[in-house]
Amino acid sequence: MFDKLKSFFKTKKLDATTAAELEDILISSDISPTLTTELLKSPDKEALKVKMQALLRPTAATLNLTKKPTIIAMVGVNGNGKTTSTGKLAAKFIKEGKKVSIIAADTFRASAIEQLGDWAKRAGANFISAPNSDPSGLAFEGVVEATKRGDDIIFIDTAGRLADNKNLMEQLAKTIRSARKANPDAGFAALLVLDANGGQNSLAQYEQFSAAADITGIVLTKTEGTAKGGFILTLADKHNAKVMYETFGEEMADIRAFDPDSLVEKVFG
Q: Residue 263 in contact with residue 229, Cβ under 8 Å?
C-alpha cells in the first residue's frame, strides 16, 4: 500500500478526478470502506498525511518491563514468524543487559522446539523445553525455574494455531493462566505476531486472539516484503490496537520499535 501511495503522490494531485483511483488503492490494501471514506475527506496530500499520522500515532506503544520478571506470551498462527520474533526480541533484551529465558510451550512439534532452541542459543537465552509434555504444565514449571534463576524476561513461545479452533484457543488461555499462576507478582504481556502480508486474515486473527489472550501489543513481521499493510490503519481505527515492534529481515538484529511517523513520512516523501 505504501509504495502505491508514494507512486500516486509523485505523479498526481489529489482532487475529484483522482480520488477514485486513490480509493481503489486504499480499499485494495485492506483498509475498510468506512475508513477509506473518512480518509478521502482530506482535500489534498498534506491533509491526508496529517490524518494518517494522527490515526497511526496512538498505535505505537512500548512494552512495560518494569516488573521483574516479566512474562511475555508469544501468540499467533503458524507461519507468521512467531518463533523468529521470539528469538529476535530475546537477543534485543539480552543486548540491553537483561537476563532472559525462553520456554518452548509448543511441545508436540519437534521441529518447532528445535528451531526455537537454535534461536535461543544464538540469542544467548536460557532454553526450557520438555517435548510431548503438557504445555500448561511446562509453562508453570518453566516460570518457576526462570524466576529462581533471577531472570528479567520469561518468554513463552506458544503453539501456532488456527484462530478459529476453539479447543486450541482454550489450551492457549490455559497455558497463559498457568504461567501467571506460577508467579502472580510477575509482569505480563501477550504479543500477537501478525504477518504484514496477512490482509483481512490479520484483522480476524487480532479479534480472535484478543478474546483468548488479552493481547497487549502486536509484532508486525515481514515488513521488508510487498506487504499491503493497510490493515494496520483499520486495526488502529477499529480496535485501537498497539503495534510495538516490526521485523524486516532474517538476521537477529532485524527488529525495531514500530515508528508510525517515519512510515508516513516515507510514503509522502
A: no
Single out the residue of 18, 96, 112 nearest to residue 63, CA to CA. 96
Distance of CA 97 to the CA centre of its chain: 23
* Cis, bond preceding 184 (omega within 30 deg of 0): no
Tallying the residues shown for the chain, one arrives at 269
Report the predicted TM-score, pTM, of the whole model to 2 decimal places.
0.90
Which residues, including other chains, have CB under 8 Å from residue 155's CB and lie 6 or more apart? 72, 74, 86, 89, 90, 100, 101, 102, 103, 125
* Contact between 155 and 122 (Cβ < 8 Å): no
Cα 255 to Cα 87: distance, rounded to the nearest angstrom: 10
CB 154 within 8 A of CB 103: yes
Please state, in angstroms and as integers, the Cα–Cα distance from residue 128 to each residue in 71, 135, 138, following that order. Answer: 14, 12, 9
Sign, CA dihedral 246-76-195-111, equals positive
Listed in sequence order, the residues at least 6 apart from 115 whose beta carbon sits closer than 8 Å to its beta carbon are 83
E-state strands within the chain: 70-75, 100-104, 126-128, 153-157, 187-195, 217-221, 243-247, 255-257
Task: Kindly list the averaged pLDDT for each block of 10 residues, start to end, along the chain of length 269.
Answer: 80 84 84 86 82 89 95 93 96 98 91 94 97 95 98 93 73 94 98 88 88 91 68 85 91 92 72
Here the cell at position 253 is 538484529
Nine-digit cell at 220?
A: 508486525
